[in-house]
UniProtKB/TrEMBL annotation:
<dbReference type="GO" id="GO:0003700">
    <property type="term" value="F:DNA-binding transcription factor activity"/>
</dbReference>
<dbReference type="InterPro" id="IPR036390">
    <property type="entry name" value="WH_DNA-bd_sf"/>
</dbReference>
<dbReference type="InterPro" id="IPR050950">
    <property type="entry name" value="HTH-type_LysR_regulators"/>
</dbReference>
<keyword id="KW-0804">Transcription</keyword>
<feature type="domain" description="HTH lysR-type">
    <location>
        <begin position="1"/>
        <end position="58"/>
    </location>
</feature>
<dbReference type="Pfam" id="PF03466">
    <property type="entry name" value="LysR_substrate"/>
</dbReference>
<dbReference type="GO" id="GO:0005829">
    <property type="term" value="C:cytosol"/>
</dbReference>
<dbReference type="Pfam" id="PF00126">
    <property type="entry name" value="HTH_1"/>
</dbReference>
<comment type="similarity">
    <text>Belongs to the LysR transcriptional regulatory family.</text>
</comment>
<keyword id="KW-0805">Transcription regulation</keyword>
<dbReference type="InterPro" id="IPR000847">
    <property type="entry name" value="LysR_HTH_N"/>
</dbReference>
<keyword id="KW-0238">DNA-binding</keyword>
<dbReference type="InterPro" id="IPR036388">
    <property type="entry name" value="WH-like_DNA-bd_sf"/>
</dbReference>
<protein>
    <recommendedName>
        <fullName>HTH lysR-type domain-containing protein</fullName>
    </recommendedName>
</protein>
<dbReference type="GO" id="GO:0003677">
    <property type="term" value="F:DNA binding"/>
</dbReference>
<dbReference type="InterPro" id="IPR005119">
    <property type="entry name" value="LysR_subst-bd"/>
</dbReference>
Amino acid sequence: MHLEQLEYIVEIAKAGSLTKAAQNKHVTLSAISQSLSSLEAELGIALFTRSRLGAVPTSEGRVIIKKAFEVLSKIEEIQEEAQSSANTLSGELRLATIPGPMDLLVNAVSSFKKDYPQIRIEIAEKGSQEILEDIGQDKLDIGLIIMYEGLLKKSAGQRLSFEPVLEGKMVVGISKSSPLAFQESVSPEELRRHAFVLYNDDYVKWFVADFAAKYGPVDILFTTNNTDAIRNAVRENLAVTIGLDYSFMHDPHLQTLDMRTLDLDIPEQQPVHLSWVRSSEWHFSRLAKGFTDRLLADLKKKKFGPLS
C-alpha cells in the first residue's frame, strides 16, 4: 500500500469517476485504474462499484476511503507542523467571493502574500451557488458568501461549514441624478416605482422575491453577473439596484458621487451576514486558517465590525 494509492481513491470518491480523478491528478486513466485494482487486490475487497455513469464507493469502500482521508489529513498536519517550525507557509489557496467584498479579499491577500511569498493564491468572483458547488467538488478551499436560512436549508447534507465574518444590511444603490438622491432612506412604496437591476445571486433574488411578496411586484430591468452593466444602468438613472452596504464601500463611482446609497425603510430588517464557507469533509489547512485569521484582523483594523 502506498500513499499515492490513498490519494487516488480519495480523489475518485470526490470526482465520482476514474476519468475525472485522472484528469484532476494529471495522470493517465490507466495509471488510476491500475492503482485502484492493485489496492483492491491487496485489501481483498472492492472499493468502488464502476459503471458507465462513474464510480460509487461500496459500503466497505466508504470505510476505507474515510480512513484514507484521515491518513492524508494527518500527513498534511505533519507537513504543516514542519513548515511552522521553519516559520514558513507554502502551497496553494483557492478563494472565491460574491461581488462586493472583493476589495476586502484583495487587501488581505496582498498583506498575507508579503509575509508568506512562497504561497500561490487564486481569487474568483462568483455567485453563491457556484461557490458552494465548487467547494463541494474541491475546486475551492474557501468562499465568501451571504449566509441566510434558505441557503442553509438548501445546503443541508453537503458537509459544509459556515462561519460569520461580517454583519451588514441591504441598501439601495441609485444615481446622483435620481429623484431619490436627496433622501437618506427610501420606503418600499417609493422603491417599487423604479426599475431594478440585480446581481444574479441567490440571496439577492431571495431578498427581492420576499420584498415583492410583502410590498407588491417590482419591475426587474435585468439580472446579470456583470457588475459593470449594473453600475452603468444605475449611473444612467435607468434603474436602481439592491445590494449589501459593504458591496458599495469601495466603489469608485460612489467616491466621485456618480452613485450613492440609501437605507431601506423596512421595519425590523434583519442583519445580513457575510460568511466563510468551506468543506467540513476535507482538512482545513494551516494556510487557509492563517488567511482567514488575517482577513478578520484586517476587518477589525478597518472597523467594519467583524463577528467574533
